[in-house]
Amino acid sequence: MPSLKKAYEWLTDAYSQCLQVVALNLSQAYQNFFEKRARLPRFKSKHGKQSISYPANVKFEGDYLKLLGKVRLVYCVRHREFAGTIKTVTISKNPDGKYYASILVDDGLDSLETSTDGKAIGIDLGLNHFAITSNGSKYDNPRHLAKHQRNLKRKQQKLSRKKKGSNNRQKARGKVAKVHSKISRCREDFLHKLSRKIVNENHVIAVENLNVKAMVRNHNLAKAISDCSWGMFCTMLKYKAEWQGKTYIEFLTPQTVK
């Protein structure tokens, strides 16, 4: 790392431990590739995802988050309190210009043992209804993208008419990003609430393992399928079930195998 700092002076602007985290992440990425758990790591554009991780010595001082390095105190709004020791803080910048801090905390509690005792439920995911459960409950597909499609189209048309490289184009791009951010937040809010409800009410949760990559090849349904975010929903069900010591199962149907 010292030799890289001499070659690229701008690296000295970042806190040293943050740079070490990047090196560790790169090492882990190559390890995942060689063990055939992931693809070969690729270079990332500076215009892509913007984030930085602080691996230690981060704490709260009132309404401020104290970071090491040149940043120091940063005002923040905490959406909820937590108990435990802060391990890692990742600061990320969304395309709409807002900054978020993701905090990894060690609460000192042992993980619960998985149990299969209790109420079981099966879930069928779809487009007309987002989910239909084995007990007959139906949850409508909120179609977040369709609800905001008109506003998004209008903003994108205004963006296309702006001169490339101008300040007005940059402002228009920010407005488009805000619409996308709103759609994303609405989608995640729906998925979090539904997954929490299902996990709280059941002990064994079975979900069909859908081959989404193959399904989105149908260009007539690709946008609707992507808007559903079935994969994100299943991920939420899985980790919330694990938190509460409940069982999450994915199963294959004959249609899925095909």
UniProtKB/TrEMBL annotation:
It comes from Microcystis aeruginosa NIES-2520. Keywords: DNA recombination, DNA-binding, Transposition. GO terms for molecular function: DNA binding. One of its GO terms (biological process) is DNA recombination. Residues 112-218 form the Probable transposase IS891/IS1136/IS1341 domain. The keyword DNA-binding applies. It comes from the Bacteria. In the C-terminal section; belongs to the transposase 35 family. Residues 150-174 are annotated as: Disordered. It holds the Pfam family OrfB_IS605. This is Probable transposase IS891/IS1136/IS1341 domain-containing protein.
